[in-house]
Structure of Molybdopterin-binding protein:
Amino acid sequence: MKIFKAPTLNGIDGDAVLREARSLISKKLDEPSRRVFLRRSLTLGGLSLLTGCSISDNAQVEAALTKISRLNDKVQGLIFSPTQLAPTYTEAEITRPFPFNAYYGEDEVREVDEASYKLEVTGMVADRHSWTLAELRAMPQQDQITRHICVEGWSAIGKWGGVRFADFLRHIGADLTAKYVGFKCADDYYTSIDMPTALHPQTLLTLTYDGQPLPPKYGFPMKLRMPTKLGYKNPKHIKAMFVTNTYSGGYWEDQGYNWFGGS
């Protein structure tokens, strides 16, 4: 079965076209959550990338969905504002308890030794020394109460504190014209973000939660908190970061999730 491409959008119910395309794809593909995510992000523009694909051929549709995801990345990057702030909330609005979220169960949370911990910094930076927690805590700190939005459909409000990431990048002499900042984590997670998001004023190297040292279940010793991104873009237990012009993907992104991941 082929996905029909209308010769023109004039007089065509775009929403109906998308609903039918999404329905056809979902019936023909095995869909873990990442495929649901991509299918739901299908737009009329992206639909044209499926033209000629046999929806009974998983490889063809997978390739087309990847193209759609990359197109979405570019569009989100173009419309992202480095000065537009995500909403903030009061302490009374904090979700208690704040939910645990990871690709593994809470009983498998990684324990990182505080005394021996050092943040490795590499790539396009002037200062590549490894940072202790004491050094990071000595930098100016700020708090934010913002909403974490999960791709699975739930959200929660939490209070995060730490070093503004833009200040840290400038302090280490990072090349702010580079395209990406990547992260490697103690729980084997990894991801990368665009430089404009890295420099956003609400992007934090988080060291505390609700005024206390960051608990292991929330990412001790360090989590990158970005209220402008979906939850899976916020890495926990960070042990290394690098500034680069080379696309390095991410744990979920390499399995089909949208890379930009804007909320």
The beta strands are 120-123, 142-149, 155-164, 180-185, 190-194, 204-209, 212-213, 223-225, 238-244.
